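Dear colleagues,

As part of the handover before I leave the project, I'm documenting each prediction I ran so the next person doesn't have to rerun anything. This entry is a single chain, and its sequence is reproduced below.
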Amino acid sequence: MATYRFPYLDPHQTREREPTDWEMALAGAIEAAFGQGHHELPALVAALNASRVRPQAGGPWTEENFTALMRELGR
């Protein structure tokens, strides 16, 4: 018999696809930055620039390209 799972207990209930390897690496870098106490946007962006994860278009992270990406991924 299948076990009933409450839908609100599924952390990925709104996910339409599996994240890419790059998205998983970015999530890990963001989690590491939060774990180091970087909770404000400028500090988070600086921590991402210190990581090995770069924006897909290349170049450094900026507050603008980070927030634009979060907006896009959050749709």
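The first helix runs from residue 21 to 35. The chain has a mean pLDDT of 89.

All the best with the project,
I.
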